[in-house]
Amino acid sequence: MSAWVGGLPPAAAARVARQRASGATGSFLSAPAAAAVAAAGLVPAGEVFGCLVQNIGWTGGLCGNWSGMGGIGPGGWGWTSPVVTTGDPGGNRNGSGPYVRAVEGAWNGALHRMLLEAAALEADGVVGVVVRRATLEGTAVEFTATGTAVRAAGRTGAPPASPWATDLTAEDCAAALQSGVAPRALVLGLSVATKHEDPQLAQQRMSWSGQEVDGLTELVTRARADARRRLAADARRHTTGGGQVVVSGIGLTSFETVCNGNAKDLHAEALFTGTLLQRDPTVPVPAGAARRVLSVLPLNR
């Protein structure tokens, strides 16, 4: 592989060099979005992109009923298996720990490379960030992060060493800045919950009586709860001064793995993403931005 420049692959470094040399600035902003960031004292600095390809596989591990009970095997009829999440002590033993760490590493890796491009363009931050995940072949998965780098108009001082990132739209970001609240970082909460298919769960999954499948309700509920805890933990990693997270992405998927011959483990994967907002003097807020009360901040995207 060719030599990287400032943490960027050669193609990315060349793209940054072309943008800086041409004087032309690209962006993903619509006309209203460009007007919104201008009103907040920002100007586009260029399109930025980061990608990372990683093998994301399920390495397996102990069966869900064992990993959740510290090695105590299942009981007879009427016994129900526990739910184990990534954040529980048994999370590593059923395979979800390594899986979640691999996904988190790739997600943050693509985001980090995008922010390196933004820093090379002397940007203060990146708005409208979108992180995508696409399977290439087998277990190889590409994570990409795209957005529009922005900088304070007329800035005379040095750019920040670490630009901020937000998945808020340019309009929402401008509204936040004009209210004195600045984006700090894009944050992620991911968890996988696992439950062994015990006799009660198997019976309920096969039933045609329209009854609630208790085990699956518990499975998805625990997955979401743990993902929310991990989202809050990721936000705390970026700040010691408090703040608020605007949740913009919520997802849930499920899959099964074979366990101990013909038995099954059921898994629910919950994902939360959002932007950490903070009143923090170290985060560049355009000096010319008005300080109006933020009345509407969408929570459903």
Automatic annotation (TrEMBL):
Q: Which SUPFAM superfamilies match?
A: YbjQ-like
Instruction: Give any Pfam family that matches.
Output: YbjQ_1
Mind telling me which Gene3D superfamilies this protein's record contains?
Answer: Hypothetical protein apc22750. Chain B
Q: What is this protein called in UniProt? A: Heavy metal-binding domain-containing protein
Instruction: Give the family this protein belongs to, as stated in its UniProt record.
Output: Belongs to the UPF0145 family.
State the signal peptide span. Answer: none
